[in-house]
Structures are given as structure tokens and as C-alpha cells.
Amino acid sequence: MSEPSEQAVQKENKMGRQPIGRLLFSMSVPMMISMLVQALYNTVDSIFVSMISESALTAVSLAFPIQALMISCSVGLGVGINACLSRALGERNVQKVNKTAANGLFLELLFMLAFLLIGLFATVPFLLAQTRDPEILRNGTVYMKIICCCSLGIFTEITFERILMSTGNTLLSMTSQLSGALFNILMDPILIFGLFGAPRLGMAGAAVATVLGQHLAAAVAVFLNHKYNPEVHLTLRSFLPDPGIIRSICSVGIPSVIMQAIGSVMVYVMNRILISFTPTATAVFGIFFKINSMIFMPVFGLNNGSVPIIAFNYGARKQSRILETMRLSFLTAVSIMTFGCLLFEGIPQHFFALFHASDAMLAIGIPAFRIIGLGFPLAGFSIACSSVFQALGKGVYSMIVSICRQLLVLLPAAYLLSRSGVLSRVWWAFSIAEGAAFLLSAFFLWKVYHHILLPLEEERP
Length: 461
Prior knowledge:
Blueprint: H1 6-17, H2 20-50, H3 54-90, H4 94-121, H5 123-128, H6 134-149, H7 152-166, H8 170-193, H9 203-228, H10 243-275, H11 279-315, H12 319-346, H13 348-353, H14 359-373, H15 376-391, H16 395-418, H17 423-426, H18 428-453
């Protein structure tokens, strides 16, 4: 067996010996920026849509579960591609690397075809299940059909970004995301309001700007892979389906898709509950989800940075480095979410000003933000715990916490509170769910600490 390369030794030294604070910062910040860009992408889109009308904003909120499901499928499958591609790269199996990338793209395109069919045949039934308002239906149908039928961009973009990430090119991956997001922000007002001689497309303009941004990001990601990623080469022969590789990708990717899709189910059911009071409540929830994602996404980026550090040092049996990473992750995550809580408690009206909120929306939204924001610090702890569980091979704990938070606790609580006929009580379901997730996460963390971390023996120098 050959000696490890100098580059491999340096990587080991970085993961096993670099000061935890600097290491966590260097690995987390690119992912935090990348995820924040994705959140900004969706938020700016809704800000411009709100300039059309409140009904248009409500329509986007009702269509969002399908849009989120699309992202969940592309990102979840991308996790499988990333894991299998990284494994093939570690094995130095060039043929397997190329076939994994090609088969991953093949699977993503199959999902794209599925959403094309949803756009063509399921858009109207999906929206009718939530509302009968003709203006909301008209706006939602236009937006959702374009988003679903032109989903090639998002699936191609995610695939090639994951290929870049698998080979360590996280900055290039971030570049492609930034290009798409900035282009979408630029084109939104131009296509919605017909600026600079462009046609005034209204709701269709918002959807077209989104898919154009996704296609541009995909083109940039493909170019960056071709130009700067010599480790992966796609050929026509490599696109032949390989059952073993497809099975490997799906074994990792499909559970991730399911985990990601939980959020889509939650949004759909909450929309059904809230619209029974008033469409304005659904619009408020849509705004909350956009702003909420901008606060949560940096914490998820922190998770992505901490998982490999904890996992590496777990393999090296370096207990003190694991505990230090956990301490800094918990402190950072809770601090970010506490800052978000203070924003939701102190200046909720400024968030709604971005969306040109009516007095009716402010009357519903300001109390809603203040109630929901109370659970943010607890959420920070739970999310940080999930990275520990994943890194130590206890991903099932993360799944259980996520299902309990978004499905088993939140939705029944929201439904029962809605039966009181008082809309403001429904928002308490979010804080109740975060409290339950906090207790469950703390219990699982106790188990992990006593059964996995305490028995570790420190590696002797």
C-alpha cells in the first residue's frame, strides 16, 4: 500500500490539529453564504411579487410547497451524488467517478420530467385543494406551471454544484449560485413591471425570472466543471444506467429527499389551516417562511461545516476536539437564533414593510412573528444537535426530531388551536413544536454523550 500523499497528510493535520475555532469558521462560512444566497433568492422574488398584489403573494405562498418539494428532490438526490462521488474519488476509481456523476445527472433529469408532468396536469387540482379564490387561482396557476415545466435549470444546477462540492471546489459552487441569484434579482422587476422595453409579464415575469436565474446558474456550474474540475469527465458512454451506482445514489439520496420533503408537507397543511381563517393569514405565513429561512440558513451552513470536523475526530478518537467543536457549534447556533428572536420581537413591522403589507396583514403578522420568534433559541440548539447526531452515525435521531417538530407536534397543535376560532393562537404551535424538539434533542444528546463520547479514549501523540 502506498504512503499517503503530502496533500492527504496536510488535510489530516487540518482536520485533526488546526484550532477548532479557525477550522469551523473556514469550513462553515462558504456554506453559510451559499445557503443565505438561496434564501435571499426566494425572499426577493416574493418582495417583487407583493408589489403586484396581496393575492399574488398568497398565490406564491400556496404554490411554495411544490417549489420546495422540487428543491428538496434536487438537493436530496444531490446529497446521494455527493456521497457516492466522494467515495469513488477516494477509491481513485476514475471510471466509477465519471459514471457516478453521469448517473446522478440521469436521476435528476428523471425527477425533472416528473415535475414537468406535475406542472402540466396537477397544478390546478393542487391549488383548488387550498382555495377557490379566482384571482389567487389564476396567479398561482401561471406561476406554478412555469416553475414546474421549466425545472431543467434547478435540477442541472444542483447536480453540477454537488459535483464541484464533491471535489472540494466549494467556492466555485458558491459562484454559480450567486450568479443565478443576482440575475434573478435583476430580472424580477424588469419582467414583472416591463422595465427598459421588456414586456410587462406580471406574475409570469416573476416565474420566468426565477427559471432564467436557475438556468444561468446551471450554465455557469457546467462551465466551471468543464474548465476547472479535471477529476470528473462526462461522456455519452458514462450516461448508460448502472443499476449498482443508481442503487448507491438512491440509498443515500432518497432518505435525504424524504427528510427535505417533510417541510413541504408541513407548509401545505399549514396553508390549509390558515386559509380557513383568511387568505391574508396564508400570505403572512409565506412572508414568515421567507424571512425565517434567512435566519435559519446560516445555522444549517454551520452544521455542514461542523459535521466533517466531528466525524473526522470521532474516527481519530479525539474526544476533546469533538467536544470543543460541539461547544462552539452550540454557542454559535444559539447566538444566531437568539439574534433572530430579537429581530422578530423588536422590529417585525420592518419585515412586512418589505412586502408592502396592508393594515390587515400587519394586524395578523406582527403578533405572529413575536409569538413564533420565541422558539428560535430552542431551534438553534436542536439544529446544532442534529449535526452531532449525523457526524456520529446517529442520523436517525435527527430524522426523528425533524418529523416530530414539523409533523407530529406542529400540525396537530396547529389544528387543535385553530379549532378555538382564534387565529393568533395557531402561531403558538410553532413554539410548542420547538419546545418538544428541544427536549427530544437534549435526550438524544445525553444518550450520545454517555454511550459514544464518554467511552472514547484520547489519542496519544
